[in-house]
Amino acid sequence: MRTLLKLLSDGEFHSGEDLGDKLGVSRSAVWKKLQQLESETGLEIHKVRGRGYRLANPLFLLDQRWLQESQGDAGWSIHVYDTIDSTNAEAMRLVAQEGSLPLLVTAEQQTAGRGRRGRKWVSPFAENLYYSLALRIDGGMRQLEGLSLLVGLAVVKMLREMGVEGAGLKWPNDILVGRRKLAGVLLELTGDPADVCHVVIGIGINVNMRASEEVDQSWTSMTLEAGVALDRNQVAARLSAYLKEYLAAHRQQGFSAFRAEWELNHLWQNQPVTLLAGSNAIEGVVIGVDTVGALRLRVGDQVIAYSGGELSLRLREQSEL
Q1: 116 a catalytic residue
Q2: 160 catalytically annotated
Q3: 32 annotated active-site
Q4: I want to staple 202 with a disulfide (CB 3.0 to 4.6 A). Which of 87, 102, 140, 186 is the partner?
């Protein structure tokens, strides 16, 4: 399957005869493999008499060897899959097997990708980046304070470097361009929260997605914003470089050293919002975040800090629609 994908990844026409010669199969076998490819990946393959077959759009397949070699001295164990249920789930399984840490899991496609609050993360084949980094944390959950916000900063830095100049943060774990979601962060923990535990940093980034009927909110992608298709290997490598830098700084300084930087990149800073907490709706104005990453809202004449995985933030005008 991957060999056929590599042959077609340039987006150009390839004759059935040429594909058959390179795969060592008959033309009829090529047709069957193409049908299987469409069925398993959802990719659209164009067939034109006299010209052959081509993908609707070029693909940039993930290259495990290149990713391993491009990480410098990071020493992460890198795992690349064609299709998997969830990169976060696989990272958790590898941690349970006492695999080498840190370890990075990526995939061309997820069948059960998930975001915050149990929401589905749409994961079309070879279009976006599904990225999960597993780390060992000594000293308990206090070492994780503000970590998800810092990860968001690393994602924004990478996006801007690669041409998405309008990327910014929305508390707690979203990366937006304007009102449109481009990426999200999901942290999951396992182990002893008071001692040695492991964290999986899950990051989903819309890279080359151009259309989707499955996404239930306003969205965009790197290619729609930058105007060009991007090599997902380059995206992953630049993200890893920024993460390595920010994670090292977080271990030494904690989140408080980056609080001002985070607030400068928060798109909803000083905006009137509604904070949804279960059945409760709290109206206020975003003041910023505190030293551990909790949201600071001015509610009436008070400034109150809020944190928790079940909180959801909406711009006031959105919540009134």
Answers
A1: yes
A2: no
A3: no
A4: 186
